[in-house]
Amino acid sequence: MPDIQNITILGLGYIGLPTAALIASRGLKVLGVDTKEDVVKTVASGAIHISEPDLDGLVAKVVSSGALTTSTAPRPADVFIIAVPTPIDEDNRPDLSSVNAAVDSIVELLSPGNLVILESTSPIGTTEAIAKKISDRRPELQVGMNGKDNSAVHVAYCPERVLPGQILTELINNDRCIGGITPSCTRMAQRFYKMFVRGACVATTARAAELVKLTENAFRDTNIAFANELSLICDRFDINVWEVIDIANRHPRVNVLRPGPGVGGHCIAVDPWFIIDSAPDLARVMRTSREVNTNKTVRIIERAEALIDDHPYANIACCGLTFKANIDDLRESPAMEVALHLATKYGERIKVVEPNLKRLPDKLAKHGVGFMTIDEALHACEIAILLVDHDEFRMIPLASRRHLDVIDTRGIWQDMPART
Ligand code: SAJ
User: Which letter does DSSP use for residue 124 in this model?
Assistant: First the structure.
């Protein structure tokens, strides 16, 4: 294998930046590229623009040692990693414009011996489409498109699988799934990841690797949809859903996830659509799961409105805004959706508590809602809508919240009368 010294990473977001910092800390020279100038400047100064435990110290270290540099434009390298966003549009169809722009930006820089890796979550066939794009523009590189396994430039897919909040540990320890467009592409990518990954680097094809990533998140979405559906059934029969799940999960082959106010974040609420879009006639469970999870947010809003309308003079604490516990990320957050809806309808009666944000998001502030600590809200409010299971909320003793009428969407205040 050619000597690997220089890595160019396209995209300095939640995955690209930690990956860049980790690789740089292993003695390789890394250029981090982002189209946003403010991101490039922030990282160049040794700071970070996202919140992730321990990332600030690592970035500061590798920037000050010169191992990580940044730019808005890529430069020639031995390995190119594409870690750009792949969102869905209003019709729930994958938007690959950032991946295509990233490939366009490197295609003229490629030289024999290079390895191009896609890490972004992508529909089946994307890695092959990248290889074809490179092959069309640079036919002399023989990018695995001739049926022979003799590419001069290797192309592979290796999806990121890390959990926000634990990214640095999981980047090192999780198993990776690596699929090249030819077997030698797979082998070269495996050797590269082995330079910094402790987990197994499991080999497969590019298409299978793309579907593995989508499968992981679609499976979790479906399991959560099952839990959310169960929570509605339990409500109808006045049964405590948390108790049902806890006891059912004592069965050695059952593992139901937890109901909540819906599914948020940029992955689980989005990725199933990549499969549904590719095979709409077959992906029936996945589509229904998406609908069940989206509808759960609507049901929580309806329940909250019914409770609030029964108490016309009460103040209401909306506890939590982020898409899950102990992070500051609001992307696709169902908690935010509930709070926004209630803010629009009840204005200053709504008091938002979000210990992971320094200030109230503008779209809530414009409705005149309050922004409080949990202690202030416990004094000011008679109703609490618990939307995120932050540690700060788990720690509140029963005595401090006994006076509240509560809708607990996360099941962390189960010592109170059930009202999930
Ligand atoms: N949620 C529930 N009930 C549960 C678990 C989660 O309602 O029992 C909700 C959370 O509150 C949140 C959403 O689901 O709103 C997603 O949270 P998450 O912690 O399940 O996952 P993410 O989106 O933070 O990260 C996922 C992970 N995928 C899997 O666990 C299969 C992570 O490993 C992926 O790398 C990441 O997506 C990604 O980037 O694709």
Answer: T
Residue 132, classed as helix, strand or coil, is helix
Q: How many Å apart are CA 180 and CA 189, to the nearest integer?
A: 7
Give 156's Cβ-side CA count (13 Å radius).
31
* Fold agreement between 6-199 and 216-408: yes
Instruction: Residue 278: count other Cβ atoms within 10 Å of its Cβ.
Output: 16
Of ligand 1's listed atoms, the one at least distance from the Cα of 257 is: 8
Give the Å distance between the CA of 162 and the centre of ligand 1. Answer: 10
16 lines ligand 1 (CB under 6 A): no
Measuring CA to CA, how many Å separate 68 from each of 9, 31, 40, 192, 262? 10, 6, 11, 18, 38
Paired residues of 156 in beta bridges? 117, 180
Does pTM surpass 0.90?
A: yes
> Which residues of the chain register pLDDT less than 70?
1-2, 145-147, 416-420
Under 8 Å between Cβ of 187 and 100: no
How far is Cα 31 from Cα 18, in angstroms, rounded to an integer? Answer: 13
Catalytic residue annotation: 213, 267
CATH 3.40.50.720, applies to 6-199 = yes
pLDDT number for residue 145: 60
Count CA within 13 A, CB hemisphere, residue 389: 11
Q: What is the pLDDT of residue 420?
A: 46
Three-state DSSP string of 4-71: CCEEEEECCCCCHHHHHHHHHHCCCEEEEECCCHHHHHHHHCCCCCCCCCCHHHHHHHHHHCCCEEEE
How is the beta sheet containing 79-82 ordered, strand by strand?
68-71, 29-33, 6-10, 79-82, 115-118, 154-157, 176-180, 201-205
pLDDT for position 342: 98
Cα 10 from Cα 273, distance rounded (Å): 24
Q: Could you give the C-alpha distances from 213 to 61, 94, 122, 179, in angstroms and in order?
A: 31, 15, 8, 11
Residues 6+ apart with CB under 8 A from 223: 255, 256, 257
* Sequence letter at residue 49: H
Whether domain 216-408 has CATH 3.30.1160.10: the reply is: no
Q: Return the domain boundaries, the chain.
A: 6-199, 216-408
343 alpha carbon to ligand 1 midpoint, in Å? 26
| C-beta of residue 334 within 8 angstroms of C-beta of residue 294 | no
